[in-house]
Design brief:
This protein is an alpha/beta fold. 37% of the residues lie in helices and 20% in strands. The longest helix is centred in the first third of the chain and has 18 residues. The relative contact order is 0.14.
């Protein structure tokens, strides 16, 4: 559990944030499955410039503000797909209380709770894995979906899946990069796709930038993908999505299934 305790809910954020949105696509249906909300400055400044202002004193307030801003913007943009929001487990001191502002924002904005995915990165060290499981269980109990981002690059890995199965895992882009020419990466990603299928977990490949990567990933059983091949993040907007690379692969006789 975070050591912020109840002090966390009394802190305020002395700067504001906004969001860019990047689609997660279903390459079989040729449609958007979800949009991930990516933190930005209010003037479109990079995530890095925003995150460098976050520390233990304002982590809770920052986490809460990001959630609310993402939901409000998604509703204002007329988003009808799922919305994926990153959250910081170490900013959560009590799962039910810390979820109140998210629930209130969804109800106030008219954005369906069941369309919200809360994702946390596996790369963030978690002092108490049991507490992370409690967070996920609480969120799922309220109707939200849960996801592990950067899977395969961090601290938990398969041990986390053994104890708790999120709705979604997102395969780290390092495993996706140049997968078309790397047998080891293909074997690992294929195994993760099979595990996801057996456990009822959706598997998303992120960081897809090349046609060859998308083709190999689909051959390995992954149909949900995210990356510049389809669309770059758009600041306070839903970017247009292109499936041209996959259509080109099909016309060239390259198998994607």
């Amino acid at each position: 559990m975070s050591d912020l305790g109840c002090k966390g809910c009394k802190t305020t954020l002395d700067f504001d944030v906004s969001m860019a949105f990047q689609p997660i696509v279903d390459v079989d249906a040729r449609e958007v499955f979800a949009y991930e909300a990516l933190v930005r400055g209010t003037n479109g400044a990079s995530a890095a410039s925003v995150l460098q202002r976050v520390d233990d004193s304002n982590r809770y307030a920052f986490d809460q503000r990001c959630r609310v801003r993402a939901i409000e913007l998604a509703a204002a943009l007329g988003m009808t797909t799922k919305l994926s929001i990153n959250f910081m487990p170490n900013a959560v001191y009590e799962p039910t209380r810390c979820l109140r502002t998210s629930l209130e924002a969804a109800r106030r904005s008219g954005f369906p709770v069941e369309n919200i995915i809360f994702e946390t990165t596996e790369a963030e060290p978690i002092a108490d894995p049991a507490f992370l499981q409690r967070i996920f269980s609480t969120y799922r109990g309220e109707g939200f979906m849960t996801a592990i981002d950067d899977f395969g690059a961090g601290y938990a890995g398969l041990n986390l899946l053994a104890d708790f199965q999120p709705d979604i895992i997102k395969i780290d882009m390092a495993l996706v990069r140049d997968i078309s020419g790397n047998r080891a990466r293909q074997t690992i990603v294929g195994a993760l796709a099979a595990i996801g299928n057996l456990l009822g977990i959706k598997v998303i490949a992120e960081g897809v930038e090349r046609q060859s990567e998308a083709v190999v990933l689909r051959h390995l059983g992954i149909k949900l993908m995210q990356g510049y091949l389809f669309a770059k993040p758009a600041f306070e907007a839903l970017p247009p999505v292109s499936f041209d690379a996959l259509d080109t692969a099909a016309t060239q006789g390259i198998s994607a299934a």
